[in-house]
Amino acid sequence: MAGKRSAPRPAGVLDAIRLSAGQWVACAVTALSIMASLGGYMWYQGIVNNITTTQVDTDEWDRPTSVEGVMNLLVIGSDVRSGENANYGVVEGARPDMMLIASINVDNGTVTMVNLPRDLVVDLPGCEATEGHEGMVAQSGMINSAMTFGGVGCQWNAVEQVTEVHLDHFVMMDFTGFKDMVDALGGVDMCIPGPIDDPKAHLTLEAGEQTLDGEQSLGYVRSRYGQGDGSDLSRIERQQQFMGAMLRQVLSSEVMTSPLTITNFLGAVTDSVTTDDGLTIDTMTDLAISMREVDLKKVQFVTVPNGQHPADPNRLALSEPAATELFQAINSGADLSDAGEEEKEEEGDDAPAAPAPAETSVQVLNGTDIEGLAGQAADRLTSEGYVVTGTGNPEVRFPSVTTVYYATGQEAAADLLAKSLENAVTEEASGLTGTLELVIGPDWSGFKGDATGPGLSVTEDLGGITAEEEPESVC
């Protein structure tokens, strides 16, 4: 369930971006997930002081509503190449080569990473000129072009407007940091299905099972034309598989029982990461406390549903309504993992039997500014057999999230009602007798099974994978 909504977090004005980001920055999210699992290693707080920060003024645009308990990160990869990264070619300006939204839900322990292909054409908002950037008018264009014209703030704005997902922070990582991360682990084991020769990615590999060092891993996740059909989508699929392999290796007993390996790994991460200044040590610590263990079944990778753009066969367009449903589910904090469904079934087996809806009376109160929600919910509950005693607005209890209040002895009935909703919590309240009180909060997403509700599984419906899954090996 989602938890409480909170106001958007403001920051300052865009300063200089001091790090060039690597072409495969998804590993930054892997690293953050791993860091979140290391709650017992309190010394890691000193390591994260190495992270470079910059400021973004998020007050410059209208933003989606955030959900407390859900942290959404915009992970950006850029083709800026300077310093130690100059060995990977020369390009002019900052050209985001990869972006994803990493949604970390501390309430249900899921981490969902949604790739946004660089070839995706969308409606971009206008951005004012900033130092080093000329700005742009609102236009249709590739989703990664906003950063080129308006910097990180413009890219942040564009992704929020296109997806309607509230982004709490952004993360970037450079080439050298990625290599150092892999080398700190002693390499990553991968099955290479066929020989690879891709000069553009600085990569030559034989087929078969092998351990890739940092340089080889960087080439593997950057490689586009030397593998598969040469498309960005096929490269994203390989990147997701590599990320899963890397996460499995980091969480293996060999690594987790070696403080030196963990220290070197986190040091490589933090030396190469740039974030907004709102992603503080305290924020990371709170995340670590909330997610002490990472269940690989609930770490998911998926590419946003897409298809060929009708005006250009070399470009992509969002596939609707699947893309919007995914973004809505992410922003509401819905658990899209099959592991979440398994847990709910297990909980159901152990929970005391709940009375039938026909034996349960409910009062429905609308705690939002949206007119008619209480009546709509009451009609739905009546159709499902509940006895609705009345509707209105709350006068006693004003929760920040959708809440089912119950009297002593009614916990099972309240749980049954809450589980029929996309987002709801339960709470015992004094002053109630035999009637449940459903107060609709700002996070209201309707009933489970509604066409407008999430109702999605990353693996079953969207072709995604989890970190626990190893692709069928051909080696």
Kindly describe this structure:
- Pfam families: LytR_C, LytR_cpsA_psr.
- Residues 95-251 form the Cell envelope-related transcriptional attenuator domain.
- The chain crosses the membrane at residues 21-44.
- Residues 360-444 form the LytR/CpsA/Psr regulator C-terminal domain.
- Keywords: Membrane, Transmembrane, Transmembrane helix.
- The protein is an alpha/beta fold and 475 residues long.
- The chain is 30% helix and 23% strand.
- The protein has helices at residues 26-36, 44-47, 145-163, 175-184, 214-222, 232-250, 253-256, 259-271, 281-290, 322-332, 338-350, 373-383, 411-419, and strands spanning 5-6, 52-54, 66-67, 70-78, 96-105, 110-116, 121-124, 139-142, 169-173, 188-192, 196-198, 203-205, 208-212, 273-276, 299-303, 306-309, 312-318, 361-366, 387-392, 403-406, 425-428, 435-440, 465-466.
- The strands form seven sheets. It has an eight-stranded mixed beta sheet with strand order 2-14-9-4-5-6-15-23, with helices on both faces. A five-stranded mixed beta sheet has the order 19-18-22-20-21, covered by helices on one side.
- Helix 1 (26-36) runs parallel beside helix 6, helix 4 packs across helix 5 (214-222) and helix 4 packs antiparallel against helix 8 (259-271).
- It is globular and about 70 Å long.
- The model is unreliable at 1-44, 80-93 and 339-349 (pLDDT under 50).
